[in-house]
Fold this protein.
Amino acid sequence: MLFHHKTEYQPNASTNVRFVPKADIRDLGKGKAIIGLPFANSERNITMSDFSAFAELERRSWSDATRASSYVELFAAAPDQAIDHLLDAAGARRDSKVLDLCCGQGNVSEALLSRDCHVVGVDFSPAMLAFARKRVRNATFIEADAQELPFDDAEFDIVVSNLGVCHVPDQPRALAEARRVLRSGGKFAMTVWCGPERSPCFAAVYRAIKTHGHPDVSAPPGPDFHQFARPDMAVKLLSAAGFSKIDMTTVDCVWDLVAPDDLFEIYAKGTVRAAMVLSKQPPGNLAAIRSALTAAVREQFARGDRWRVPVPAALVRATA
C-alpha cells in the first residue's frame, strides 16, 4: 500500500508562522490526560459503547437550524477547498453513480452533478439536508444513518465523504457500510482534518484551549478526530472494512480571515465539539482562550491586510 505524502505547508519569510514544538504536539494530538480538548479522548482504551453521549451531542447539535446555518456561513469555506481533490481521487465522471456520505449542505453533491454524475446524498441532520435540497435540485437526498445505509449491496460506483466520517460514532461500521454498497472495484474517498502535528490551525486552537481552558470542562468521549490522517490507522481501519489499494495525500486548505478574531468565531459557532467546550467555559477562561487564539492568528498568520491560517486535510482513497 503506497502512501503519497504531499509536502507540508512551509512558511515563507512574510508569513511569520511558528509551529508548535514536537513535545507539545504529542500532548495536543493524542489527548492523553489533557482536560478540555474537544477532539481527543482522555484515555486510549475507551470503547465504542462509551460514545453514546458523543453520538447524542452530534445528532442534536447538527439538527439545530442555527448551528447548521453557522456552519454553512462560517466553517464551510475551508472544507469546500478539498472537494475537487476528493472527486478527482475517486475518479468521479459522467454517469458514475455516487453516494455522498455525510453530505451536509450538499456542496459535494453539487460538484458531482457538475461532472454529470448520478448523485444520492445521505446525512443524519434534517437541518443540513434542508440546505442541500435547496442548493441542489437534481440530486436525491435521504435522511439516514451512515452506520446503517438504506441501500442494496453493490449499488454505487463511488462513495465519497468530505470531512464527514469524523462525526460518526461507530466509524468502522460506517466504513463497512460504505464497502457493502460499493460494487467490486468501486472507489471510496474521504477527507479528514490533519492533527496539530501537521496543522497550524489545530495546533493554535488546541494550545489555546489546553492552556486557558477550565480543567473541569471537556467534551464527551468520541472517536479520535484525526485518526484517518495517520497512515497506520487509515490502513488498519479501511483494510478491516474490506478495502484495498489504500493511499493518502494532503490537501492544503486554508482559512482566509478578515480579522484575527475570526478563527475563534468559526470554532465557537460553526462546530459542535469545540463549540460545546467553549460554551461551557467560565467567562474568564473563555475570554483568555479567545485572546490567546486571536493573538496567535495575529502574530503567526498575517498576510498583507488579511490572515491566512493553514488547515490541511488528509485525503484517503481506497478500492472496494
